[in-house]
Design a protein that fits this description.
Layout (H helix, E strand, L loop, with lengths): L1 E2 L7 H10 L9 E4 L4 H9 L4 E4 L4 H18 L8
Parallel strand pairs: 1-2, 2-3
Length: 84
Protein backbone atom coordinates (compact mmCIF):
# COMPACT_ATOMS: atom_id res chain seq x y z
CA UNK A 1 0.00 0.00 0.00
CA UNK A 2 1.49 3.28 -1.13
CA UNK A 3 0.08 6.70 -0.32
CA UNK A 4 0.22 9.17 -3.19
CA UNK A 5 0.88 12.12 -0.89
CA UNK A 6 4.33 11.51 0.60
CA UNK A 7 6.59 14.21 2.10
CA UNK A 8 9.63 14.07 -0.24
CA UNK A 9 8.81 11.99 -3.32
CA UNK A 10 5.25 11.55 -4.47
CA UNK A 11 3.80 8.07 -4.26
CA UNK A 12 3.62 8.05 -8.06
CA UNK A 13 7.39 8.68 -8.23
CA UNK A 14 7.99 5.81 -5.79
CA UNK A 15 5.68 3.62 -7.89
CA UNK A 16 7.74 4.41 -11.01
CA UNK A 17 10.95 3.43 -9.21
CA UNK A 18 9.41 0.15 -8.01
CA UNK A 19 8.18 -0.77 -11.48
CA UNK A 20 11.54 0.14 -13.09
CA UNK A 21 13.38 -2.35 -10.87
CA UNK A 22 13.11 -5.85 -12.32
CA UNK A 23 13.35 -7.43 -8.86
CA UNK A 24 10.47 -5.36 -7.49
CA UNK A 25 8.13 -5.32 -10.50
CA UNK A 26 6.11 -8.32 -9.31
CA UNK A 27 5.19 -6.66 -6.02
CA UNK A 28 1.55 -5.58 -6.24
CA UNK A 29 1.19 -1.89 -5.47
CA UNK A 30 -2.05 -0.49 -4.12
CA UNK A 31 -2.17 3.28 -4.41
CA UNK A 32 -4.00 5.16 -1.64
CA UNK A 33 -5.29 8.70 -1.72
CA UNK A 34 -8.09 10.86 -0.44
CA UNK A 35 -8.59 12.06 -4.02
CA UNK A 36 -11.15 10.50 -6.32
CA UNK A 37 -9.88 12.14 -9.51
CA UNK A 38 -9.99 10.00 -12.65
CA UNK A 39 -6.78 11.61 -13.97
CA UNK A 40 -4.88 10.58 -10.85
CA UNK A 41 -6.17 7.00 -10.96
CA UNK A 42 -5.39 6.72 -14.67
CA UNK A 43 -1.85 8.01 -14.12
CA UNK A 44 -1.26 5.44 -11.37
CA UNK A 45 -2.48 2.61 -13.59
CA UNK A 46 -0.30 3.83 -16.48
CA UNK A 47 2.70 3.69 -14.15
CA UNK A 48 1.94 0.10 -13.14
CA UNK A 49 -0.30 0.31 -10.08
CA UNK A 50 -2.31 -2.83 -9.42
CA UNK A 51 -5.10 -1.06 -7.59
CA UNK A 52 -6.24 2.49 -6.78
CA UNK A 53 -8.14 3.04 -3.54
CA UNK A 54 -9.74 6.24 -2.33
CA UNK A 55 -9.22 6.18 1.41
CA UNK A 56 -12.05 7.36 3.61
CA UNK A 57 -11.41 10.26 5.95
CA UNK A 58 -13.02 8.56 8.98
CA UNK A 59 -10.69 6.07 10.66
CA UNK A 60 -13.36 3.42 11.21
CA UNK A 61 -14.26 3.43 7.51
CA UNK A 62 -10.57 3.34 6.57
CA UNK A 63 -10.02 0.39 8.92
CA UNK A 64 -12.89 -1.53 7.29
CA UNK A 65 -11.54 -0.83 3.81
CA UNK A 66 -8.10 -2.13 4.86
CA UNK A 67 -9.72 -5.34 6.15
CA UNK A 68 -11.42 -5.87 2.79
CA UNK A 69 -8.12 -5.24 0.99
CA UNK A 70 -6.37 -7.72 3.25
CA UNK A 71 -8.90 -10.43 2.49
CA UNK A 72 -8.59 -9.85 -1.23
CA UNK A 73 -4.79 -9.59 -1.52
CA UNK A 74 -3.93 -12.27 1.03
CA UNK A 75 -6.77 -14.78 0.72
CA UNK A 76 -8.37 -14.33 -2.71
CA UNK A 77 -5.70 -13.07 -5.08
CA UNK A 78 -3.02 -15.44 -6.34
CA UNK A 79 0.24 -13.58 -6.75
CA UNK A 80 3.05 -14.57 -9.11
CA UNK A 81 5.49 -17.28 -8.12
CA UNK A 82 8.84 -15.60 -7.58
CA UNK A 83 12.05 -17.56 -8.04
CA UNK A 84 14.81 -16.41 -5.72
Amino acid sequence: MLDIKLPKLSGIEVLKKIKEDERLQVIPVIMLTTSDRDEEANKCYREGANSFITKPVKFTEFSEKVKVLKFYWLLTNRGPKVNS
